[in-house]
Amino acid sequence: MIAYLKGIIHDKSPDQVIIDVRDVGYLLEISNQTYNELPATGDEVELLVYHHVTDNDQRLFGFANQNEKDLFELLITVKGVGPKLGLTILSGLPAQQITGAIVQEDKSALSQIKGIGKKTAQRMILELKDKMSEMVDATYSPDSAANLSSNIKEEAVSALQSLGFKKRDAEESIELAAKGEDIDGNVQELVKKALSQMDK
């Protein structure tokens, strides 16, 4: 299985990129998120890879960062969501909006994505909401630092990153959500508030 590829960008478009690795061209399907982070054609790039293998086909899906790949792998656990649709979902909305819509059970936001009907949106919520909540809960350890308030913010930022957010976006959202709040020991509520604000 291929874990990542490092080489020269031979060609790129919003939905795929060809990487030249020692005179062998690899075609990777990508999301708009990854496309926007690619350097210019002719420059070196390193992409994480999801190697999808079936009896009749092999396809490579590329990701600019681990958070996007993790979110993709979570999405394709949903019944009826394969790798191609998972990539379409990532292209349809920013990662934070996808995560926020699932946690807040916002079917209408998810249904705006091409290829996602109300039934698929409902399945995504039913199958992923608890998993995402568990990821948030798992980041909290009340005895891990002396300064609890500061540590809670760090744990909340890590939780958002594990759900596919970029670090800068996560930090800004948590700071905004924490203003005027008693956040001691309340990572999950802080993350939920941040996600709710992002959806507005």
TrEMBL record:
InterPro entries according to UniProt: DNA_helicase_Holl-junc_RuvA_I, Hlx-hairpin-Hlx_DNA-bd_motif, NA-bd_OB-fold, RuvA, RuvA_2-like, RuvA_C, RuvA_C_sf
Region annotation Domain I: where it falls in the sequence: 1-64
Gene3D superfamilies: 5' to 3' exonuclease, C-terminal subdomain (1.10.150.20), DNA helicase RuvA subunit, C-terminal domain (1.10.8.10), Nucleic acid-binding proteins (2.40.50.140)
Pfam families associated with the record: HHH_5, RuvA_C, RuvA_N
Keyword DNA repair: yes
Location of region: Domain III: 148-200
Single GO biological process annotation from the record: DNA recombination
Main subcellular location: cytoplasm
Keywords: Cytoplasm, DNA damage, DNA recombination, DNA repair, DNA-binding
Entry-linked SUPFAM superfamilies: DNA helicase RuvA subunit, C-terminal domain, Nucleic acid-binding proteins, RuvA domain 2-like
Known partners and oligomeric status: Homotetramer. Forms an RuvA(8)-RuvB(12)-Holliday junction (HJ) complex. HJ DNA is sandwiched between 2 RuvA tetramers; dsDNA enters through RuvA and exits via RuvB. An RuvB hexamer assembles on each DNA strand where it exits the tetramer. Each RuvB hexamer is contacted by two RuvA subunits (via domain III) on 2 adjacent RuvB subunits; this complex drives branch migration. In the full resolvosome a probable DNA-RuvA(4)-RuvB(12)-RuvC(2) complex forms which resolves the HJ.
UniProt protein name: Holliday junction branch migration complex subunit RuvA
